[in-house]
Amino acid sequence: MSVMLDLFSVLAVLGGCFFFVAGTLGLLRFPDTLSRLHALTKADNLGLGLIVLGLLPRAGSVLGGLKLVLAWALVLLAGAAVSQVIARLAGREGPAP
Amino acid sequence: MSGAWLLDGVLLLAVPAIALASLLSRRVLPALAAFVAYGLLLALVWMRLGAPDVALTEAAVGGGVTGVLLIGAAARLLMPAAAAPPGWPLRLLTALLCLGVTAGLAVAVLALPEPAPTLAPQAAEQLAATQLGNPVAGVLLAFRAIDTLLEAVVLVIAVIGIWGMAPDGAWGGRPGPVQPRLADGSVALLAMLLPPVGIVFGIYLAWVGADAPGGAFQGGSILAAMWILAWLAGLVRPPRIDSLALRLLVVAGPALFMLVGLAGFVVADGFMAYPAAWTKPVILLVEAALTLSIAVALCLLVAGWPMRRARA
């Protein structure tokens, strides 16, 4: 059982790392602001989400797990809101995306 | 341990790199973005050094509050026709002064005796007398309380200085530019969803400071951030600066701290000494008042000075 949980943790965290690397690559390589934001949100939402999911079995207590999920939810909220602001500014200032 | 080594290595490379990026950037906003990222990375460095109290302060004050203040300053600088950049003699002089400060700091750090002199064992030994669980809180509010008092007073003076920028006719009005009310959009949503969480967390951080990493400055910064968010969304308006309640809130923390300090002459051994049986309740009371005053002062620093003629 614990081996299965460890395997689950490793796979989920590795998956999260993959999305972070992919998101960073997109941030560096994509041509315009909106595509770069699109890449970045994948890193925030899926990358951090998978890492939190992988760490949940190791949180030790229900409260610790809830704190991890809360951290993820707050990052989701802030990330989504800030992306909207940046996208709106980019649409107003730059050439049409 | 190899994982920790890797993390330290990445931090060691990333912190100077982002500091350089902030210094070398020719435009203001990218330089500020790099500065905020630098503050957050530095917070991680403090965590790796085993100093969570400093890390929290660095993230909240160094990255967050300072970043917001600098962005506000940059926005005010960019508003009118930007002044011509300083000529090369002034830039050379600035570079020389900065190099001098850096070199002085480097010499001071390298010249420290080995092992560095420390008062940590004495502080840890006496901590039980303060009934606090967090040695950092013990140093800040008992052993070196005068430093903390002066820090809180500096904030009050900064608020007075900012209010002093008000043009004659605007004195007494509401500080800062008018924020139009955002009916929808992501900032309005964030300003409604985040404060309930942030206010609880800010109060928690100030409360837990007695026994664990946290404290008045960290909690106050988060409380201030929540108000600033609601202000930017146009949901709240700052009170007029001639409001007595507002002024009392700004000075409440330092004033209570000073009163407690003076009372030490009568009920304990001297200035800023606490009566033994009451140490912890008094410290908690002072910390609560400080948190409130710091939060209000930070909000006022970000809001700025009254700009429009006050309606009589």
What does this molecule look like?
The complex is a heterodimer of chains A (about 100) and B (about 300). Chain A has one domain (about 1-95). The model of chain A has no long low-confidence stretch (mean pLDDT about 85). Chain A has helices spanning about 1-30, 35-55, 60-95. With about 100 residues, chain A is mainly alpha-helical. Chain A starts with a helix and ends with a helix. Chain A has three helices and no strands. Chain B has helices at about 1-25, 30-50, 50-80, 90-110, 120-130, 135-145, 145-165, 185-210, 215-230, 245-265, 280-305. By secondary structure, chain B is mostly helical. The N and C termini of chain B lie far apart (about 65 Å).
Keywords:
heterodimer; A: 97 residues; mainly alpha; B: 312 residues; 2 domains; 11 helices; globular
Walk me through the topology:
The complex is a heterodimer of chains A (97) and B (312).
Chain A: H1 2-29, H2 33-55, H3 62-93
Chain B: H1 2-24, H2 28-48, H3 52-78, H4 88-110, H5 120-130, H6 135-143, H7 145-163, H8 186-208, H9 216-232, H10 244-267, H11 279-303
